Amino acid sequence: MLFKLSHCSFSYHSRLVLDDISLGINAGETVAIVGQSGVGKSTLLNLLAAQHSDNIAYCTQDRQLISGLNCYNNIYLGKLAQFGAIKNLLNMLRPNVQALEEISAIAEQLHIADKLQASVGKLSGGQQQRVAVARAFYQRRPIFLGDEPVANLDSVRAQQVLQAILQRHQTQVIALHDRDLALRYFDRIIGLQQGKIVLDAATADVTQQDLQQLYL
Amino acid sequence: MNTLSSGSSVGLKLRNFSLLLVAAGLLASIFADVQIYASEPWAHLRIMLQGLFSPSISDPQQLAIDLFYTLSFALIGVSLAAVAGLLLSLLYQHPLVRFCCAFFRAIHELFWALLFMQLFGLSASTAILAIAIPYACTFARVFHDIYQHAPIKLRQLPELADSKFSHFLYVLLPQVWPQMRSYLRYRFECGVRTSAVLGFVGLPTIGFHLETAFKQGDYSYAGALLLAFFLLIASIKYWLKVYLLPVYIGIALWFLPGSEFTNSSDNIWRFFSVDIWPAVIKTADQSIVEKLLAYGQWLSSLLLQQGLPGMGSTLLLSLMALAATAVLCVLLAPLLTLMRGQWLVNSAGQCLLLVMRSTPEYILAFVLLLLLGPSMLPAVIALAIHNSGLISFLLQRDIAAAQTSTTASVSFSDFLYKVMPDLYAKFISLLMYRAEIILRESAILGVLGVTTLGFYIDSAFEDLRFDRALALLFLTALLNVVVDQLSRKLQLCFSDQGIRVRSKD
């Protein structure tokens, strides 16, 4: 089993965010985590991220883009720790040929190829979101964790990006609020309510109504 | 009700602290010599002001050279310091680096100049090193402080923690560069002031001729020099650009005076191995224990005769100056706020603040000493004028930022009820931050004749008693480090009152 939580609780500023969670996720699964905002989705992802940090590409909700860098370097950051200091310094002065090629291909897939030289501060929310996803792609990890990675995209773009995420990773655990996307693209859906898991089933057994219950 | 009472207790704590500070200042003035010794200070002041306000330049070429050297020393010194400070800031986690920075920073630029003068004479190297060393240590701490406040920590890439340099280059630097740039700009302005003051110990900057002009009573020339100096400082923001820096540094290096004073490495070695140690431990047939004992005796008698009296007056002067700064700020703040409506009055106020904060306290103290005679009073006034000018300037920026919506003038009750409550914690923060700097300056003003630590250090250098000079310098630095730590502790006590706490040394 890839991820395993048993009877896990988590408090933040003396507020109980996760309440006695037990959960197992196998390699190769495609899992959606749904629920109202503030219900503990991000905390759950953080707990999972801590379990396999070496094999995970983690796309957090706040995107963590560095405002003073252009898009290319923000994506390059994904592999920063794998390269030596000299290579990174040179890349800052002039993009590394190999990295540029690889990053251009990723940017092409996410439709931000024309923005690589732009400063991230100048991009729209949706474009910034795709830069964050591109950074995760560039890491080339088998597991993708995403916290609302397509929340700011229109529905066509959101589907394109989500397909790209699914195609590039073996295992995905993604928090999202779009119920249609959850039902359409994921094998398994975990529903959270008030810090507890109230739904955990294969997508085939889940209906729109079941999901609507979570948002009441 | 609850918030009201807690709100007023916050105010009370700050009020009590302020009153205590002023009381301590007044108490200190009982023990200190704050007499006016000059017989006719007002008449002298009138003549001086007449001269200062009718500036005339007898030797424009000399003035240009003075300004050029002043700028060049500042430019090269601050640039070197910035590079060294940047490297040190990356190692600032290390306790040894932190301590060395705190210690070297605690020694004033003028003291460094007096020290390097023994090694390199009155040369460009002396001036540049005297600026670069303490500034590098200040940069290290401030840059480190700035890194701590970088908004994005990139927690989803934990493996980055191992590649420190890359992390700095890609994550920290791009985020904090704007802040670092504005701090560098501010320090450059400080560097120009320091460079000017270095003239007072003989280095070829504008301070050298300023001192001569004042001493000879040539106030018109002094006025011209000061005017040129203010214009230089006011113009910095128009020409100081990062991309032009290499050009400026190149020009400065090319035209700087070559040093005629060349010191052999033997002399430098002798300075460290022989000159700085007292004669009592230099007898040949002494064991280590005897040497230590003799050194201890020598040190304790030096402490009793010079160290403790010097420390006492340094602390007295600092306390008085701090209290006077606080009072002056409190008087200035409402004036500056009320003036905001009227354009003309406001501009005049801005000019006044610019002059107050651009005039180095050392030059102010020197001029006031000429007017009032040799007591602590000139030093107190000089420190209070310079520091309150600086604090008021910073506070006033905040007032302006808070009032962007209402450009209309502010009434006195607005000031009391709206501006003051928001600003007071910030004011006390700034005051605590300046406390360390006031102490540094109090020590250095001894070079002018006030009997603070600087007086004893300067005398020791004059008598070529480098053993004493170094021991006293060490003591001065230590005192500064201790006071700095205390002021940090105080900041911590008041942190829930909104006082900013600086990072640990």
Task: Give a short summary of the structure.
The complex is a heterodimer of chains A (216) and B (505). Helices cover 38% and strands 25% of the residues of chain A.
Low-confidence parts of chain B: 1-7
Q: What's the mean pLDDT score of chain B?
A: 84
Per DSSP, the total helix count of chain B is 18
The rounded distance between the terminal residues' Cα atoms of chain A is 33 Å
What's the CATH superfamily of the largest domain in chain B, by name?
MetI-like
Which second-level CATH architecture of the largest domain in chain B applies?
Orthogonal Bundle
What is the share of helical residues of chain B?
A: over 70%
Strand content of chain A: 15-25%
What structural class is derived from the secondary structure elements of chain A?
alpha/beta
Low-confidence regions of chain A: none
Succession of helices and strands of chain A: EEEHEHHHHEHEHEEH
Largest sheet of chain A: 6 strands, mixed
The shape of chain B is globular
Average pLDDT of chain A, rounded to a whole number, is 90
Q: Which strand order spans the largest sheet of chain A, edge to edge or round the barrel?
A: 4-5-6-3-7-8
Q: What Rg of chain A is obtained from the alpha carbons, in whole angstroms? A: 18 Å
Strand content of chain B: under 5%
Number of domains of chain B: 2
How would you characterize this protein structure?
The complex is a heterodimer of chains A (216) and B (505). Chain A contains 8 helices and 8 strands; from the N terminus they run βββαβααααβαβαββα. In chain A, strands 4-5-6-3-7-8 form a 6-stranded mixed β-sheet, sandwiched between helices. Chain A has a two-stranded antiparallel sheet with strand order 1-2. Chain A is of the alpha/beta class. Chain A is globular and about 50 Å long. Chain A starts with a strand and ends with a helix. Helices cover 38% and strands 25% of the residues of chain A. In chain A, a hairpin with a 2-residue loop joins strand 1 and strand 2. Chain B has 2 domains: 11-54 and 280-505, MetI-like fold (Orthogonal Bundle), CATH 1.10.3720.10; 60-263, MetI-like fold (Orthogonal Bundle), CATH 1.10.3720. Chain B is built from 18 helices and no strands. Chain B has helices spanning 2-31, 41-52, 60-90, 95-106, 109-120, 124-148, 164-198, 206-215, 219-239, 245-255, 265-275, 288-338, 343-358, 361-372, 377-402, 412-444, 453-462, 466-493. Chain B is globular. Mean pLDDT of chain B is 84; it is low at 1-7. Chain A binds chain B through residues 49, 53-54, 58-60, 64-69, 73, 76-78, 80-81, 83, 85, 88-89, 92, and chain B through 152, 154-160, 162-163, 165-167, 169-171, 173-175, 177-178.
